[in-house]
UniProtKB/TrEMBL annotation:
Acidic residues bias: start-end ranges: 270-279
Annotated segments matching region Disordered: 258-286
Name recorded for this polypeptide: YkgJ family cysteine cluster protein
InterPro entries found in the cross-reference section: DUF7531
Length: 286
């Protein structure tokens, strides 16, 4: 597998406003997410713990799914949510605020972009770092292993050029089914405690408390079981609620500055003031 990512970052950006093509394919699992965040990367439990311990708890967000299967759902606030044993299932990914970006050589546009993507270089600020998620490092490995269209190919179809240079599947084992429980897919132990957040998932209006609750449960989960370590949960909850990273502050600044998604944006160099001047690490270069 070999890819050309320069000037692209299609897998890090919600570029749907840039095209009329149907590119909404990068979904994982059989259910429809409550939110509309595109390409939300599922983090493993140890990766979530790593981000929290590094002070980036405010850069994480959970995802719930709708489910119409009575045996695999629980009703919360009138919404049937995917569940295991009556407990809602979720995963945790990286937040995607609107940023001024110009992928594929397009003019700068307000698009939802991974919190760690530098708009000026279109490179990841934690690339090569211990925090860099395995899913990002191996993308589009799972797609190729399952013979599923990649984001690289969607960009090629819309903008030409060649992004997927070698489509030989790498040695990647997708994590699905029971093996994913407690490792990448998590189960909240108390449905009533999170029932009130369902509407905020749908409206993309999660509060810091909503995000912290799910992140803490994920960090306190145990692989292959529904058990939660109460001490780890409490410690993580406090750490996430008090997190104040450059990433979290930048998300607030980008959100306040952004016009409607898909609208013309200022030069991506505004990221220097919003991110770099507040301590964001540099990108690695190519």
């Amino acid at each position: 597998m070999e890819v050309d990512c320069e000037g692209c970052a299609g897998c890090c950006i919600d570029w749907r406003p840039l095209t009329d093509a149907d590119i909404d394919h990068e979904r994982r699992g059989p259910f429809e997410p409550l939110d509309d965040t595109y390409n939300l990367v599922p983090l493993a439990r140890e990766e979530i713990r790593g981000f929290v311990e590094a002070g980036y708890g405010d850069a994480l967000r959970p995802r719930l799914w709708r489910a119409e299967d009575d045996e695999r759902s629980v009703a919360l606030d009138g919404v049937d949510v995917a569940a295991i044993d009556g407990r809602p299932v979720f995963f945790v990914g990286l937040r995607k605020p609107p940023k001024a970006v110009g992928p594929f050589g397009t003019p700068p546009t307000w698009l939802r972009t991974c919190a760690f993507l530098d708009p000026t270089t279109l490179q990841c600020r934690v690339h090569g770092d211990d925090l860099y998620p395995e899913t990002c490092a191996t993308y589009p490995g799972e797609n190729l292993a399952m013979d599923v269209e990649t984001e690289c190919e969607r960009v090629e179809s819309a903008y030409g050029g060649q992004r997927l240079l070698d489509d030989a599947p790498p040695d990647v084992t997708p994590l699905f089914g029971p093996a994913a429980v407690g490792e990448r897919v998590f189960v909240h132990p108390e449905p009533d405690r999170v029932a009130g957040s369902v509407g905020r998932f749908r409206d993309d209006d999660l509060t810091p408390e909503d995000r912290a609750e799910f992140v803490a449960v994920a960090a306190a989960s145990s692989p292959g079981t529904l058990a939660i370590n109460d001490e780890r949960y409490e410690q993580t909850l406090e750490t996430v609620l008090t997190a104040d990273s450059w990433t979290g502050r930048a998300i607030d600044r980008w959100t306040d500055a952004a016009d409607e998604l898909g609208e013309a944006a200022p030069d991506p160099a505004v990221a220097e003031e919003i991110e770099d001047d507040d301590g964001a690490p540099p990108t690695p270069g190519w």
